[in-house]
Design goal:
Helix content is 34%, strand content 15%. The chain is built from seven helices and five strands, in the order H-E-H-E-E-H-E-H-H-H-H-E. The chain is of the alpha+beta class. Strand 2 and strand 3 form a beta hairpin. Strands 2-3-1-4-5 form a five-stranded antiparallel beta sheet, with helices on both faces. It starts with 7 loop residues before the first helix and ends with a strand. The protein is globular. It has one domain: Alpha-Beta Plaits (2-Layer Sandwich).
Length: 206
């Protein structure tokens, strides 16, 4: 039996959310599409969720957010809001998104940092840039205004560049970083590091 969905209106939880384009098309490789999606993320920031980290990859997105409504509604704002604007502003009638999304509830500061690093390093592992800060469609790039992590999820400070600290991260191999949704590395973390013990991604409809 599928566990009951935790509603963010009452639990204040933080999640990493992943959603892919329809047919894995590289829609966001076009600057105008990627910029519109980022603008959509910021349009609903504050009203539907707190925005902590994100990356827009050519065929999917990863976002760390804390919903102010239910998680499903927060994701609907992002996906539905973008689809509406793509049709209105870009004149596109394309089906943008695959149905549903994957999510992982962040459990503690260490779990938060692992997922933050994963998001920031995703473009590097896909050979889209050499350093995370160079990728224009990522919150790792200087200049993006982000909401701080909830107090109980304050990430561990790093004194070295992100890439140098990835050496000990359990999911750091090409196969995992190359996974279509990105999120399925959760089960690998659990088997490699019992302390973190994250759950696997849950597929939702949105």
């Amino acid at each position: 039996m599928r566990p009951t969905r935790e509603h963010a209106t009452s639990n204040g939880q933080t999640y990493m959310v992943t959603s892919s384009t329809w047919g894995r098309r590289a829609l966001f490789s076009r600057d105008v599409w990627a910029k519109l999606l980022i603008d959509t993320l910021y349009h609903y920031r504050g009203s539907a969720y707190l925005l902590h980290d994100f990356v827009v990859m050519p065929d999917h997105i990863h976002v760390i957010l804390t919903p102010k409504t239910s998680l499903e509604k927060a994701v609907q704002f992002i996906k539905g809001g973008f689809s509406y604007r793509a049709k209105k502003e870009l004149g596109s009638n394309l089906e943008v998104w695959q149905k549903g999304f994957s999510d992982h509830r962040i459990r503690d500061a260490s779990d938060y940092r692992i997922h933050q690093i994963y998001i920031q390093q995703n473009p590097v592992r896909r050979h889209l840039c050499e350093m995370a800060e160079e990728y224009p469609c990522s919150s790792a790039r200087p200049g993006f205004d982000l909401d701080p992590a909830p107090q109980w999820l304050k990430p561990v400070a790093l004194d070295e560049p992100h890439a140098a600290r990835l050496e000990g991260v359990p999911f750091q191999n090409d196969a995992l970083f190359g996974a279509p949704e990105g999120a399925p590395f959760q089960s690998k973390i659990a088997s490699a590091n019992a302390k973190i013990a994250p759950t696997g991604p849950k597929n939702k409809t949105a």
